[in-house]
Design a protein that fits this description.
The chain is α+β, with helices and mostly antiparallel strands. 32% of the residues lie in helices and 17% in strands. The chain is globular.
Length: 129
Protein backbone atom coordinates (compact mmCIF):
# COMPACT_ATOMS: atom_id res chain seq x y z
CA UNK A 1 0.00 0.00 0.00
CA UNK A 2 2.88 2.40 0.75
CA UNK A 3 5.24 1.09 -1.93
CA UNK A 4 7.69 -0.73 0.34
CA UNK A 5 7.72 -3.92 -1.73
CA UNK A 6 8.95 -7.27 -0.44
CA UNK A 7 11.47 -7.71 2.35
CA UNK A 8 14.65 -9.77 2.25
CA UNK A 9 14.34 -12.78 4.56
CA UNK A 10 17.57 -13.08 6.54
CA UNK A 11 18.17 -15.61 9.29
CA UNK A 12 16.94 -13.46 12.15
CA UNK A 13 15.02 -10.59 10.54
CA UNK A 14 13.09 -9.23 7.61
CA UNK A 15 14.97 -6.38 5.92
CA UNK A 16 13.28 -3.67 3.91
CA UNK A 17 14.72 -2.20 0.75
CA UNK A 18 16.88 0.92 1.08
CA UNK A 19 14.96 4.17 1.24
CA UNK A 20 15.70 7.89 1.36
CA UNK A 21 13.72 10.66 2.99
CA UNK A 22 12.12 12.96 0.41
CA UNK A 23 13.43 16.02 2.26
CA UNK A 24 16.05 16.76 4.89
CA UNK A 25 18.53 14.00 5.68
CA UNK A 26 19.58 12.18 2.50
CA UNK A 27 21.14 9.19 4.27
CA UNK A 28 19.97 5.84 2.90
CA UNK A 29 18.24 3.59 5.42
CA UNK A 30 16.48 0.28 5.67
CA UNK A 31 14.39 -1.27 8.41
CA UNK A 32 15.11 -4.61 10.08
CA UNK A 33 12.20 -6.33 11.81
CA UNK A 34 12.66 -9.38 14.00
CA UNK A 35 10.23 -11.38 16.07
CA UNK A 36 11.16 -11.56 19.74
CA UNK A 37 9.54 -12.89 22.88
CA UNK A 38 10.34 -12.64 26.58
CA UNK A 39 9.87 -15.26 29.26
CA UNK A 40 8.59 -14.55 32.78
CA UNK A 41 12.08 -13.43 33.88
CA UNK A 42 12.45 -10.99 30.99
CA UNK A 43 14.96 -13.17 29.10
CA UNK A 44 14.55 -12.48 25.38
CA UNK A 45 14.55 -14.93 22.49
CA UNK A 46 14.57 -14.21 18.76
CA UNK A 47 12.85 -16.30 16.10
CA UNK A 48 15.49 -17.76 13.75
CA UNK A 49 14.77 -19.01 10.23
CA UNK A 50 17.03 -21.96 9.51
CA UNK A 51 17.15 -22.22 5.74
CA UNK A 52 17.85 -25.60 4.18
CA UNK A 53 17.59 -24.70 0.49
CA UNK A 54 14.23 -26.47 0.25
CA UNK A 55 11.50 -24.23 1.67
CA UNK A 56 9.32 -27.11 2.89
CA UNK A 57 12.26 -28.36 5.05
CA UNK A 58 13.11 -24.98 6.57
CA UNK A 59 12.83 -24.71 10.35
CA UNK A 60 12.01 -21.92 12.76
CA UNK A 61 13.56 -22.01 16.23
CA UNK A 62 13.75 -19.65 19.19
CA UNK A 63 17.29 -18.51 19.91
CA UNK A 64 17.87 -17.24 23.45
CA UNK A 65 19.63 -13.90 23.60
CA UNK A 66 22.21 -13.94 26.39
CA UNK A 67 22.20 -11.09 28.90
CA UNK A 68 18.85 -9.82 27.68
CA UNK A 69 16.81 -10.06 30.88
CA UNK A 70 15.08 -6.75 31.51
CA UNK A 71 16.67 -5.18 28.41
CA UNK A 72 13.53 -3.10 27.84
CA UNK A 73 13.79 -1.58 31.31
CA UNK A 74 17.50 -0.87 30.84
CA UNK A 75 16.85 0.76 27.46
CA UNK A 76 14.06 2.86 28.97
CA UNK A 77 16.39 4.09 31.73
CA UNK A 78 19.03 5.06 29.19
CA UNK A 79 16.50 6.90 27.02
CA UNK A 80 15.07 8.72 30.02
CA UNK A 81 18.57 9.87 30.99
CA UNK A 82 19.10 11.41 27.55
CA UNK A 83 22.04 9.08 26.80
CA UNK A 84 20.55 7.09 23.90
CA UNK A 85 23.34 8.33 21.60
CA UNK A 86 25.71 6.03 23.53
CA UNK A 87 23.60 3.02 22.53
CA UNK A 88 23.57 4.09 18.89
CA UNK A 89 27.36 4.54 18.86
CA UNK A 90 27.94 1.19 20.57
CA UNK A 91 25.54 -0.58 18.19
CA UNK A 92 27.31 0.76 15.09
CA UNK A 93 30.72 -0.11 16.52
CA UNK A 94 29.66 -3.67 17.40
CA UNK A 95 27.77 -4.31 14.16
CA UNK A 96 30.71 -3.11 12.05
CA UNK A 97 33.18 -5.10 14.13
CA UNK A 98 31.22 -8.35 13.70
CA UNK A 99 30.64 -7.71 9.99
CA UNK A 100 34.36 -7.08 9.47
CA UNK A 101 35.13 -10.40 11.18
CA UNK A 102 32.45 -12.17 9.08
CA UNK A 103 30.94 -13.27 12.39
CA UNK A 104 27.45 -14.66 11.76
CA UNK A 105 26.72 -15.48 15.40
CA UNK A 106 25.93 -11.84 16.28
CA UNK A 107 22.77 -10.79 14.42
CA UNK A 108 21.35 -7.27 14.79
CA UNK A 109 19.23 -8.16 17.81
CA UNK A 110 22.24 -9.51 19.70
CA UNK A 111 24.22 -6.38 18.76
CA UNK A 112 21.37 -4.26 20.13
CA UNK A 113 21.38 -6.13 23.47
CA UNK A 114 25.16 -5.82 23.70
CA UNK A 115 25.00 -2.11 22.87
CA UNK A 116 22.38 -1.41 25.54
CA UNK A 117 24.33 -3.35 28.16
CA UNK A 118 27.67 -1.74 27.17
CA UNK A 119 26.19 1.75 27.29
CA UNK A 120 24.65 1.07 30.67
CA UNK A 121 27.86 -0.45 32.06
CA UNK A 122 30.02 2.33 30.58
CA UNK A 123 28.71 4.98 32.89
CA UNK A 124 24.96 4.93 32.99
CA UNK A 125 24.23 3.92 36.55
CA UNK A 126 20.96 4.04 38.41
CA UNK A 127 22.35 7.06 40.32
CA UNK A 128 22.66 9.00 37.07
CA UNK A 129 19.22 8.01 35.90
Amino acid sequence: MHGWGNCEDSTSSLISERRYFTSGNSTAFSIDVCIVAADEDGQMACLIHEKTGIVSYDRYDWNDALHSAQIRNTAHLIKRSGKWTLVREQYLRLKNMYLTRRDRSHPSFVCYIEAVNHAYDAGISRRQL
